[in-house]
Automatic annotation (TrEMBL):
GO terms for cellular component: cytosol. GO terms for molecular function: copper chaperone activity; metal ion binding. InterPro entries: Copper_transport_ATOX1-like, HMA_dom, HMA_dom_sf. This is Cytosolic copper metallochaperone. Residues 1-65 form the HMA domain. The lineage of its organism: Eukaryota, Fungi, Fungi incertae sedis, Mucoromycota, Mortierellomycotina. The gene is ATX1_2. The keyword Chaperone applies.
Amino acid sequence: MAEYKYDVVMSCGGCSGAVSRALGKLEGVEKYDVSLETQKVTVESNSLTEDEILDVIRKTGKTASISSA
């Protein structure tokens, strides 16, 4: 299973909630963690690519990028 990390700009609980809802509905996501405090999202998937997940996060209207850390 692959683990992907993203930097996502989220300013409130509604922002992190939108990202959580989108990932929760996404078929192929096994586990995810959305942290408003650290502005990080971690996703585990065995069938989706890093870019496919990034596109879904961006469709929530958030600025997101693949984490370098």
